[in-house]
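Protocol step 4 of 6: structure prediction from sequence.
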Amino acid sequence: MLTADSLDAQAITFNGQSSPATDFSDAPSSPLTINANPFDYTFTPYSITLLRLELDLETTMLPIIINSGTAISKLR
């Protein structure tokens, strides 16, 4: 997750590292351990988050998410 203190901040962190290696090897990803369906998670303000989801397509409802983390609709 890339985060900053404001939209015009000059300093950022990537997965908790303020100066990550160019290949990000020192800033590994972190799993979200949420087993609820649908899951509820508040994303950090002023952040860019890449999610990799493993889905059970028979029972999954996929929310469409806007930057604030608010689900605006659900697809079945």
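Step 5 (inspection) to follow. The chain is about 0% helix and 20% strand.
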